[in-house]
Specification:
- Chain C: It is a multi-pass membrane protein.
- Chain C: It comes from Limimaricola pyoseonensis.
- The complex is a heterotrimer of chains A (303), B (366) and C (276).
- Chain A is mainly alpha-helical and 303 residues long.
- Chain A has 15 helices and no strands.
- Chain B has two domains: 230 residues, Rossmann fold (3-Layer(aba) Sandwich); 115 residues, OB fold (Dihydrolipoamide Acetyltransferase, E2P), CATH 2.40.50.140.
- Helices cover 23% and strands 33% of the residues of chain B.
- Chain B has eight helices and 21 strands.
- Chain C is globular and about 70 Å long.
- The relative contact order of chain C is 0.13.
- The chains are: A mainly alpha (303), B alpha+beta (366), C mainly alpha (276).
- At the A-C interface, α1, α4, α5, α6 and α7 of A face α1, α3, α4, α5 and α6 of C.
- The structure holds adenosine-5'-triphosphate and magnesium ion.
- The site of adenosine-5'-triphosphate has 12 residues of chain B, from β2 and α1.
Amino acid sequence: MKRFSLLSPRAGAAFITPAGLLVGAFVIVPFFWVIYVSFTNRTLLGRTALNPEFVGLANYLELFSPHRFLDPGQFGFSLVLTIQFVLFSALLGQAALGMALAWLLQQVPKPVKAMTETVVIGAWILPEVVIGFAWFAFLDYDGGTLNGMLDAVGLPRGDWLLDYPFWVIVVFNTWRGTAFSMMLFNSAFASIPPSYFQAADVAGASSWQKFRDIGLPLIRGHVVTDLILITMWTFNVFTPFLLTKGGPGNQTEVLSIYTYRVAFRDFDFGKGAAVGVVVMLINLAFALFYLWVARKRTPGGAA
Amino acid sequence: MASVKFENVTKRFGGFTATEGLDFEVGDGEFVCLLGPSGCGKTTTLRMMAGLETPSEGKVWIGERDVTRVHPKDRGISMVFQDYALYPHMALADNIAYPLKVRGQPRPERHAEAQRVADVLQIGHLLDRMPAQISGGQQQRTSLARALVTPSDVYLFDEPLSNLDAKLRLDARGFLNHLQRDMGITAVYVTHDQAEAMALATRIAVMDRGRIVQYAPPLEIYRRPATTFVANFVGNPPMNLIEAEARIEGGQLHLQAPGLHLAPLPVPAALATRAPGRLTLGVRPEHLALAAPGAANRIEGRLFANENMGPETLVTVTRTEGEARLTARIFTDEAPRLSGAVAFGFEARHLHLFDAEGLRVPGDGE
Amino acid sequence: MTDHLRQFLGRAGFAFFTALIGAIFALPLVWFLFAPFNSRAELGLAIPEPFSLSNFRQVLENSFAIRALGNSLIQSVGGTLLVALAATLASYALSRSPLPGKRAVTYVLLLFSSVVSGSAAMVPIFLMITRAGIIDTHLSVILVFAGGLLPTAMFILRDFIDGIPRSYEESAMVAGASPVQAFFDVALPVIRPGVVVVVVWAFVNIWGSFLIPFILLRSAEKMPASVAIYSFYSEAGTPIVTLLAAYALLYSLPVVLLYLFVSWKFGFRFFGGIKA
Ligand SMILES: Nc1ncnc2c1ncn2[C@@H]1O[C@H](COP(=O)(O)OP(=O)(O)OP(=O)(O)O)[C@@H](O)[C@H]1O
Ligand SMILES: [Mg+2]
């Protein structure tokens, strides 16, 4: 024994090896491989499946080719669509709704709280394909629950998946993911000493004033954490595929679905990889920003 | 039982030196207290004995064996951790019996042994409980029981009583004292409570910034503190230290300070050959008494505080405008209603002298 | 008095409003609760009349459907075990052993794992698995999930282990235990709640996942339930709703049970990889 430690360096290295191999093989290698493939014309079948050629920046140039950049089915369209998708479903939908719910849940009777929480969390943890079907039925034109309800109150029914596909996946993703923000904010609010709010009660503050002047400022750090995390996740989410398959007419083809179609429907791996690289760069920017924020507020940071 | 020896032990954490040149021996059957302020390296020293830290330099011996690089499990020690380190998933019986389990004793035997030790510590009726279900004092005794359940060459204690209330603390202190006298264990005990060290130790090692500044029996430390640091750290309240102008005139030592009236002293041998310049004069609060005005040796000041502690009273005066304070501990019965000017008298034999570096100037006959 | 009344009305308003949001959230799930028990179920919402278990009988008789549930179980349990085992060992080492640069390692891992998302990595993962010759096997799904979930699992667990005083293991060693004994006797039991969280999290993740098995598996007898569910279509391409609904309910059951277990045991807070 050279120097005492709870676990010798050699044992430590042995302990890390299995995880190191797995992560190396399925996270780190793919990272470099996708970069490599993005510079080739690799396909699934045919001559270039076995002997892909180096094509330089051709895949990237094709992605960013200006004249059709924003047409549906093109990379630019998906990129813009994804940004809108993130903006509406994550930042506006999940975060705002999660915040409202977390605040309301602080002050409602226990049964109401328990039931609401269960439903919201249920939407979040049920398997994605199940959720996909439930929504498919919910939005069905003929007998779907939504149209049935609209009938009942005398409003016109709609063919939602055909007419408003983008808004469907926005609402869908909001519904699916609000639980995370709700729980994060919930625990953030719970960590504020009750005396802060009691002092405001004594001063006669309304719930809105307490939220604006005490609750929100005190959990600002959590809000930033939440926004970054849900942005990253929404940016990469594949679940809308289960509802719309990217259609109709590529109208809901967010980047992850676009990658899937290019690589596994058109079998153009080189181009799919190029999209992957762009997505990774965007992810990297978010991740670095997150680490930077997390480091900045390490003392007392709770997330 | 065995002795413990440190040979010039230095421990560095990165660039920071936690202990430096530790060189001392704990005799067989001794109970040594490591005493010092927070961060002075007591825990680090103890952990090097246990083998939980490896010295950067120097050697550690237990008995005749160089254990510097021996694993903790092979050192024949027991240790009580400051935070108790009771395993939360084991009932008390299993916690206490764990050292026996590791040694391969069968379950019934080790539980009988745990019961025996627990009974001595008066926690025998709690053995089915989990650590989270007992009080702090009971946890502390459980941790003690776990250390005592196996016979060990050396017992190490890291502030084991620091989390207890005053009453439990006194009880536990008495128990440890009894243990040492009765069983003659070798023990090293970390504390920053000087009263605890005084009560328990056969010798005290006073530490300051990673070094041992004095290593001696409690009374010796009390009577002849080696430095102003020790003088200031041991004693309650600590020794009064007075900066004084010193000069030798006519074969006698004259000391001058605001408020001080002191008959010339014989020159200590250590000062005979050099000009003294400034000296620090020390006198313990318990060696001060109210003096009649005009007494030969006295210190005067204005009353600052008067704290009644029951049978005794702490009287604090300021010698000058400002900081220079002085505290005396006198019997309450003898403390009249003081106000304004106060004078304390003392005997010259109770004075301590320290040189400009803060080192003790030995009196004659020391 | 009026003040009290106003306060009461305010509270009631909040409660009503919250319940309303809860109800709106529940709407898309209502059909899913009724249809499995309705032998003539369609996409339309209808109270089962009569209440019937015939859909489930049909599912249970469908050997393909049952096999798919078994496949889900194989892949989830395999992946979860691998994640839990590798993550426990690795995070213990990252927390307790004096390996140089271990803090940096954790952060780099985390960075990679959030950058290399499923959508970005599907092409290289497919190519690698193909080249390794394990395309269309359970093993491929298990390995890919293990690799992908490990960084987050390690991060959660390392945080957990860092919060456990080192004096547990130290006191065990002073008592005479070897590092391995200290790990199994003392460290592992204390870490267990953290491992349980990781296990539940990994299981729910793999069990519910669609994309990875969808890309990696070809043959029907390997499909997990998440992919197999798409085979309940008639020749004409319309979903066989009765079967689908009952199957979806069966398939959701483990997740619901785990949710109940976790909220009973720990109080459901986070097992969603908050640290990710
Ligand atoms: N693992 C470590 N890494 C870096 N510095 C350390 C480490 N352990 C201790 N130190 C430093 O060494 C010095 C001595 O620490 P030690 O724990 O021995 O003090 P102590 O005398 O026991 O104090 P206390 O009474 O507060 O317990 C402190 O300044 C401490 O910050
Ligand atoms: Mg200490």
